[in-house]
């Protein structure tokens, strides 16, 4: 990604598609099915197909799409997706650290603003914050060059044994879950002890040195990423 960028000529909808494909494709940039994309965006499958065909046929294609093989970002699409993601996570951090927004409100606010900020505004936010590497949810903030810290954490739902872990990040997509996380002290850097797990019912956990245990549904647990705790 070049240091000086072109003005944004993409619509909000296009940006949202690119960001969703980036998220669903993971670090390996796997192909993403139309069904997964429709579920993620809450959009009808026919609309997904139309948009992907449009993005693939653009003068500078933003995706590589085949109906029965799914979609992945082109290099141009990846650059734009990472740029929007950088905007989003910088804005979240600015709202949280400078403007004292509640943790459960910053995602929606950043969703509205991420498409429109200028490069100069982005640079000033980053400088004001001291060029942070992670946002308040623990997610890596892409650099201007589109580089991100490798993700080495696992989901709580992937934990196979009881024990103590360090919370690496929490999902920012569900405001209700974020309020539950905040109320229970679930935040990046905190220690989480898995006391009981059930693939159906969910998980019984505690935070830090507290002996007070509480339950998390499997759905909520799927929004928590963990790192092993050094012994």
What are the defining features of this structure?
single chain; 231 residues; alpha+beta; six-stranded antiparallel beta sheet; 8 helices; 8 strands; globular; disordered N terminus; Fe-transptr_FeoA-like; DNA-binding transcription factor activity; repressor; transcription regulation; HTH_DTXR
Strand content: 15-25%
Q: Which secondary-structure class do the elements indicate?
A: alpha+beta
List low-pLDDT spans.
1-9
pLDDT averaged residue by residue: 91
Write down how many β-strands occur, each being a DSSP E stretch of 2 or more residues: 8
Q: Main β-sheet: number of strands, strand sense, barrel status? A: 6 strands, antiparallel
Strand order of the largest sheet: 3-8-4-5-6-7
Write down the overall geometry. Answer: globular
Helix content: 25-40%
Oligomeric category? single chain
Number of helices: 8
What is the CA–CA distance across the termini?
Answer: 40 Å
Run of helices and strands: HHHEEHHHEEHEEEHE
What would you note in describing this structure?
- The strands form 2 sheets. A 6-stranded antiparallel β-sheet has the order 3-8-4-5-6-7.
- Helix 1 crosses helix 2, helix 1 packs across helix 4 (75-97) and helix 4 (75-97) crosses helix 6 (119-128).
- The N and C termini lie far apart (40 Å).
- A hairpin with a 3-residue loop joins strand 5 and strand 6.
- The longest helix is centred in the middle third of the chain and has 23 residues, at 75-97.
- The chain has helices at residues 12-25, 34-41, 45-56, 75-97, 106-113, 119-128, 175-183, 218-221; strands spanning 63-66, 70-73, 154-155, 163-170, 191-198, 202-207, 214-216, 224-228.
- The chain is built from 8 helices and 8 strands, in the order H-H-H-E-E-H-H-H-E-E-H-E-E-E-H-E.
- The chain has 231 residues and is an alpha+beta fold.
């Amino acid at each position: 990604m070049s240091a000086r960028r072109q003005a944004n000529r993409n619509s909000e909808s296009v940006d949202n598609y690119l960001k969703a494909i980036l998220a669903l494709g993971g670090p390996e940039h796997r192909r993403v099915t139309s069904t997964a994309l429709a579920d993620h965006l809450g959009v009808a499958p026919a609309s997904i197909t139309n948009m992907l065909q449009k993005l693939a046929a653009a003068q500078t294609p933003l995706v590589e799409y085949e109906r029965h093989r799914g979609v992945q970002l082109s290099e141009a699409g990846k650059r734009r997706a990472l740029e929007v993601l950088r905007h989003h996570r910088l804005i979240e951090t600015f709202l949280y650290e400078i403007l004292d927004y509640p943790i459960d409100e910053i995602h929606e606010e950043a969703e509205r603003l991420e498409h429109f900020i200028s490069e100069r505004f982005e640079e000033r936010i980053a400088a004001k914050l001291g060029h942070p590497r992670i946002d308040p949810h623990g997610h890596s903030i892409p650099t201007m060059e589109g580089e991100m810290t490798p993700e080495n954490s696992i989901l709580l739902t992937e934990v196979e044994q009881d024990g103590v872990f360090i919370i690496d990040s929490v999902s920012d997509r569900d405001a209700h879950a974020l309020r539950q996380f905040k109320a229970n002290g679930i935040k990046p850097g905190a220690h989480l002890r898995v006391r009981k797990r059930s693939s159906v019912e969910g998980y019984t956990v505690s935070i830090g040195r507290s002996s007070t245990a509480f339950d998390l549904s499997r759905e909520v647990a799927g929004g928590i990423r963990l790192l092993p705790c050094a012994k």
